[in-house]
Amino acid sequence: MRLKNSSMAEDAKEGTQRFFVPLPLSAAKKIKGKIPLNRGKATATDGSEEVLSACCGVYKRSSSLVIQSQFFMEHLLGLLRIHVNKGVNLAIRDVCSSDPYVVIRMGKQKLKTRVVKNNINPVWDEALTLSVSEPLPVKLEVYDRDTFSLDDKMGDAVFDIQPFLEAIKMRLNNLPNGTIITTVKPTRTNCLSEESQIIWTDGKAVQKMVLRLQNVECGEIEIQLSWIDIPGSRGLK
Ligand SMILES: [Ca+2]
Ligand SMILES: [Ca+2]
After folding, report:
1. What DSSP assignment string belongs to 183-224?
2. Is there a contact between 16 and 82 (Cβ–Cβ < 8 Å)?
3. Contact predicate 19/65, CB 8 Å
4. Ligand 2 centroid to residue 14 C-alpha, Å
5. Residue ranges of the alpha helices (H) in the chain?
6. pLDDT at position 51, please?
7. Residue 39 DSSP code
8. Which residues of the chain have pLDDT under 70?
9. Could you tell me the domains of the chain?
10. Which letter does DSSP use for residue 38 in this model?
């Protein structure tokens, strides 16, 4: 599969490098050391041969190299891009501030933002991309980076991607910019701190969320979801 003319190629042009693709362990071993591993931001797991287990960047910008895994493509619904925008009024975990970063987990995938030092209102403005084979909940955790001790917890949140996937499945197009497709309301059981709208923006559906962190005294995280179809994958139907 070549990247030319695909949205992955566009991503490569944009320079988005954080990319997480699970591969069968055997395939991952073959390419170990040959391809940059998400700048060390993704974590490989140690499942068996049958289990989707390892992760690697799937392309190099210079050569458009793509590692194809038939098993992976047969199960892949597409890619979920989580734009981690900023944190608001996060908890203090040092003397008078924190050095926050965000960890995103879905199933066995784990991705991190950079650390913003000494700021409880950090702007990460960073896109993390997960491969989605089933619509599992996404867990978001915030930590304070510490040099001489374990990083301190600054709260966590969980969100459901099902409403967003349902909106994508509607296969809308050519809507006026700003059209609201769906609204997800905050409830006692989700972590939304306000209504979350799925909006037609610049030719695609995006979902904006303000997540209220739990297991902490304060803090919200603003994120935005978008979707990338991968030609040749199982896809969203
Ligand atoms: Ca600390
Ligand atoms: Ca710290």
Report:
1. EE---SSS-BSS-EEEEEETTEEEEEEEEEPBSSSS-EEEEE
2. no
3. no
4. 31
5. 7-14, 25-31, 70-75, 162-169
6. 29
7. G
8. 1-68
9. 7-75 (no CATH), 79-226 (2.60.40.150)
10. G
Q: What angle do CA 229, 213, 145 make, to 5 degrees?
A: 90
Question: How many angstroms does the Cα of residue 145 sit away from the middle of ligand 2?
Answer: 5
**What Rg, from alpha-carbon coordinates, does the chain have?**
18
Ligand 2 centroid to residue 1 C-alpha, Å: 44
Given a contact cutoff of 8 angstroms between Cβ atoms, the answer to whether 90 and 98 are in contact is yes
Looking at the chain, the whole-number percentage of residues with pLDDT higher than 90 is 66
**93 alpha carbon, closest ligand:** 1
CA of 58 to the centre of ligand 1 (A): 35
* CA–centroid distance, residue 153 to ligand 1 (Å): 9
Amino acid letter, 170: M
Helix locations, 76-224, DSSP H:
162-169
Residue 176's pLDDT is what?
95
75 CB neighbour count, 10 Å cutoff: 16
To which residue do tokens 């209102």 refer?
121
CA distance 146 to 40: 19
> Nearest to residue 16, comparing CAs of 5, 7, 25, 28?
7
At a CB cut-off of 8 Å and minimum separation 6, what does 100 contact?
Answer: 87, 90, 115, 116, 119, 120, 122, 142, 143, 144, 145, 154
